[in-house]
Amino acid sequence: DKGHVTSMELAHYVRGIDILVNGHIHKGYERPWEDPVNHTICLQNYGNGSNLGWIDFEIDQPTKTIAGYSSPADNGTLLLLLQDQFWPDSTVLAFLTEQQEKYEAGFREVVGEIKKGLNRSSVSEATMNNFITDVISKRVKADFSFMNFGGIRADLRAGPVTREDIFKVLPFGNEIVVFQCDGRFLKRIIETKLAGGGRGLAVSGVKVVYNRSLPDGQKVVQLTVGGEPIDPDKTYRVATNNYLMEGNSGLRLLTDIPEAQINNVGFKIGDAVVEYFEENKVVEPKLDGRWKRDDSAQPSQEWLKTFDK
User: Fold this and answer.
1) How far, in Å, CA of 198 to CA of 266, rounded?
2) How far from 299 is each of 124, 168, 302, CA to CA, in Å?
3) 157-209, pLDDT tens digit by residue?
């Protein structure tokens, strides 16, 4: 009913898995959990590089099966990586410090200021979502820009903003990609991210009203681009990132766009944000109602004639 299974459920219902290493939930298992039926061994670290997971397996060579396992510490398989618990190797520390100074030059330089904190959301419109996609639109003069929620990784507090702050928001180094598509395809992009319980996108240049109770492919009931009702036959200039253009985050349809319609700008989103701060100094993004869920909203007759064919 949830539309997904946990790793423990996977270990229980799928035979033939000896070891299952889990992730993404940021909750560590001090000791391995073993499924009572299939005897699959499940392991899980905490998040943000706070510990090292270490387990030694004993393998029966004739049968190539797991005969047992042990942990390097008395309290389990998770070793905390806290600085005050370890004496650093002086040679390695000197090398890492040199490299850190090299690659983080200017990293803590203040590039601008925000009046109010910027917050993310993966279910609705948010100031951070609006800000990042608006920067993309302005940088490449796009009619419509969009990002996956997972590509925006941190919030920002009010006050000075450094390059390091921006890196924490956009750590993946994704680049801006521009492509041309008609209004029908533009709507399909949004519908694809709402289908099957999908949460949607961070967007710029559009106003979207959708009804979660309607069938997949028909959830969007109102859509304007640049303040005008979307034209299904008009060609729009659209921008996103290279990660999504590869078909990730469920947007496989983007891989069908002909190369002749694609422009790999070669400019990182994070650099565009830094550039925007340097040009504007003080930034105060606001909510403007561009992404709205309304489960009572219904498409107009004109809308149905245009898109429900």
Assistant:
1) 29
2) 20, 40, 8
3) 999 999 999 999 999 999 999 999 999 999 999 999 999 989 999 999 999 99
The pLDDT tens digits for 90-133 are 999 999 999 999 988 889 999 999 999 999 999 899 999 999 99
Amino acid identity, position 259: E
Burial class, 15, CB count within 10 angstroms (exposed 0-12 / middle 13-18 / buried 19+): exposed
C-alpha span between 195 and 218 (Å, rounded): 9
Q: 3-state DSSP call for residue 239?
A: strand
* DSSP output for 176-210: EEEEEEEHHHHHHHHHHHHGGG----EEESEEEEE
Written as six digits, the tokens of 41 are: 């061994």
Closest CA to 177 of 138, 134, 207, 145: 145
Q: Give the count of beta carbons closer than 10 Å to the beta carbon of residue 13.
A: 11
Looking from the CA of 128 toward its CB, the CA atoms found within 13 Å total 23
- Which three-class secondary structure state does DSSP give residue 11? helix
Measured in whole angstroms, how far is the alpha carbon of residue 67 from the centre of its chain?
Answer: 40
| CB 57 within 8 Å of CB 105 | no
Per DSSP, what are the bridge partners of residue 228?
A: 225
What are the backbone dihedrals phi and psi of residue 308, each rounded to the nearest 5 degrees, phi first? -95, 60
d(CA 268, CA 270): 5
Pairing of β 144-147 and β 65-70: unpaired
Q: Which tokens in the block code for residue 50?
A: 């706070």
How big is the CA angle at 182 (ends 179 and 183), to the nearest 5 degrees?
120
